[in-house]
Amino acid sequence: MKQQLEEIRKTAERELLAATRPAELEELRVKLLGKKGELTAILKQMGGLSAAERPEVGRLANEARAFIEQQLAERGEQLHALQTNARLLSERLDVTMPGTHRGLGKKHPLTIVLDEIKAIFIGMGFEIAQGPEVELDYYNFEALNIPKNHPARDTQDTFYVTDNILLRTQTSPMQIRYMESHRPPIRIIAPGRVYRSDPLDATHSPLFHQIEALVVDRGITMSDLKGTLEAFTKELYGSDVKVRFRPHHFPFTEPSCEMDIMCFSCHGAGCRLCKGEGWIEVLGCGMVHPKVLQNGGVDPELYSGFAVGMGLERIAMRRFNINDIRLFYENDLRFLNQF
Amino acid sequence: MLLSKRWLTDFVEIDEAVDDRTFCEAMTMSGSKVESLSHEGAEISGVVVGKILSVEPHPNADKLVICLVDAGAQAPVTIVTGASNVFAGALVPVALNGSTLPGGVKIKTGKLRGVESQGMLCSFAELGVTKGDFPEAPEDGIFILTEPCRPGQNILKALGIDDTVIDFEITSNRPDCLSVIGLAREASATFKKPLRLHTPVVKGGAGPTQDLVRVTVREPELCPRYCARAVRDVKIAPSPRWLRERLRASGVRPINNIVDITNFVMLEYGQPMHSFDHRFLSGGSIVVRRAAADESIMTLDGTERKLSPEMLVIADEEKPVAVAGVMGGEHSGILPDTTTIVFESAMFDPVSVRLTSKKLGLRSESSSRFEKGLDAQNTLLALSRACELVELLGAGKVCDGVIDIDHSDKTPFILELDVQWVNAFLGTQISEEAMVQALRGLGFTVQGLLVTVPSHRADVRHKADLAEEVARIFGYDNIPTTLITAPTARGRFNAEQKFANGVVSTLLALGFNEICTYSFLSPKAYYKIRMAEDDPLRNSVRILNPLGEDTSIMRTTPLPSMLDALARNFSSRNLSASLFELATVYLPRGENELPEEKQIVTLGMYGEKADFFALKGAVEELLAACGIEGAEFAAQPGAAAFHAGRCADITICESPLHESPLGILGEIHPEVQANYGVDTRVFVAMLDFPTLFAHAGGLRQYRPLPKYPSTARDLAVVCDDAMPAAEIERAIRGACGKTLESIRLFDVYRGNQIPEGKKSAAFTVTMRAADRTLTDSEADRAVEKILKALAAIGAELRS
Q: pTM (2 decimals)?
């Protein structure tokens, strides 16, 4: 019987190795260990053994069963692993093939930059105001210290709707409108469309966007103007940007300035990008003119303020290195999808 | 304003240590913005004076000669030229081997018909100058130099083409800086150097001006000051070189001594001058008056111009001889045989000059200065300067006495300098002394704290203006930078802005690209979208002075803009496009009233994945994201721009009695599609933004997750083909009651086994109770009710 048991172990070992499918393993289990299996058959003969032999053979039989069971399990795991591997191999993909795109929509590049600007100003405690694009001459010019026939009107070629109604040439009318309806302290930006009768070319568009900023409060100084704009500019262009404020003229601010940033291409040495100046003009600003405060119903003896105007397209063109303003309004996906 | 640096240094000394760049930077930072800096003759190098030693015929060419030229080097150079005006002994400009000429022309030694030429002899044009600059130069051929010069000398030095020219951007409030003296004053304040003004001295002696001319000013309001002086025995000739050089550097073409003098004085003093030929002043009379209604004048530019009574003219006894401050008349100008002239130096009302110039469509150097407002106290000085120059140039004999009709306001304008206020306003701590010094440097008179504004600074009228003067001389860069010190302000988006941001985010997530289109349209756009002639949306805000018809009205609908964008993408061969814009429309209200401006959320698509239901799905997702429930879509066969069978009106129904139209959605009419040149189906939806915002859902409330399983039943019903799915759904909803969780239409079938004119629509109806598992019999009872309700609307269970 010992020999038989030994035989079963050997056969089992051999046949298990030969099995290639889990089903075969199951067949083997039944054949070897099942009720009618070979091992069971041997155990059934145990009755014929002497009492002395019985424990020894019993132990051997149990060892054989344990061995076969262990072998079955091991082989089972092996086969499972092999099978899984084979499946994975057969399901192999070319991972260098392109992904399937769900088609994510993209913000317009002007919106991308405008959102950034809004976020910076909101972080500095500003709110956002909006006003009409078709505007009264009064708000666009008169109340901003630009009477009829003032030469400053020349620099802003205006589309008129009637003698008194026009397409706003700047977002500055929002200064008056906001002051009329809100008491200081005021801290707003007013982004929006503006219109000038410039024929469309690579650098001019009859419609473009400006962002106005207005701060009115007690004790606002020109150094606040500089500090606020410097903080804004460093947020927008990076903390290593250099800015300078240079005198300029706007009828509705006094003193007036233009703010330049140092040319990031030549770092001030002068190159083609900055037309040899070393600096690039970014925005216009100044202390709100006392008459303008008055026109907005604010007492210039008690309050002072500053105002800022900047062109969105120019900022976006620099940001993305776009050299033709027309691309913004053509809305070609080959352009829009780049941002 | 082009400034000759050489001319500037007549009035203010600039340290040698200050190079041109530093000079420009400092001027820019004190308020006179430099646009560009250039050096005359910068394009020319390696060109020298040469003396022709001999001229020999060319052995191989009849039209060429060989010149031996002493160009200052030890050995003479050989130069072949085709010019016929060269001769031995002549001094000429020689472009030597390796030299450059304007336009990037490089000169190299080369062979001309077998003879080596070591350079080129130049004409004046080849040196980039004009006949006006060098009247003595021959029209054709080589420039024979008449100036004292020696062989080998740099030609730029020899001819004085070596000035530094600075182009300033002068803002409209500073007409005083449209002059050499004005800029010199700024430079003197900037560099803290004295301003050296010159007082013109006129000898006169040619008899009284009054004997030759009488001046009457009929409109003192429009002409506050008029000064005139006559000159006899005028000899028209070219101006001397130093004067021509300054004009050239200033961008003005030299013409003749008298014309040049008036231009020179305009540039130096900023005061436009005019000179009349006395012969053509009928009656020796100058009358400053308004034009008569039927008058006209031929201006110097040779154009006949109709005048009108709001225009101020300078007239003689009979006719206008000049449009005041704008341009002289052709028939009273200076001619080669002019012998007696009258100089005019006047101050005209800026608004009047501006209106006249605008109405005539005629702008001149003169009008652009007058319209900014000139200094009435400058006229006499300028006139004297002109007369002084006449004597200096020997151009004529100046008469005695000046006619000066002066109605100008001479009251000095005085402001108080509030040192503390200025510092508080600027955020600085500038001393009183420094402020006073800055103001004095700019020509203000300061006594104690009273500041008298000079007459040429009409732009300074308020203490804030004084603050600016102080600030720019102190240096904007020296003003500290601080952050606003005030109670913390609340920066935020308001509710509507937040909502708009949400709409944008949703549409982006839905795969729509944001676009940005023009607000104006061509009126033709309304035809292109088949808008009815009597559609109220045709009433648009109209621009009086558009750039062109294409941009002449403000849109009342965003549809044409969206279609333009889709069409552009189609023609760029982009296979598909899904675009959106929060587009503003402009809806006229009453006359003299501003239009209503509101935004329309506009979606448009074409291409592989675009169809009516794709767009409808996007709209539904957007509405869901906005928290809007109860939007209904109803067939709209009457929208002109849309496919009659594929268009829906979208309405928000708060209650059966209260419905708000929200917008429209559909496939674009094939004709409209063709009008835009798009050869594929196009789908557009337009939703009224204010309505969306008004109906936006507020805060969402959590609903517990279901604890009990749901029961679903599929129902296929047969109904009239025309019956809207929404009607069947409504019937199911009404009949099923509380346990209804959802209805999903999953199949629509027409054809075999379904009668003609009918369709089969299959729905999955899902039911669930919150508190128990629904039993089969409960579900069956619900289905029975549903079927009854469906039968009532003519939909039967498919057998």
A: 0.87
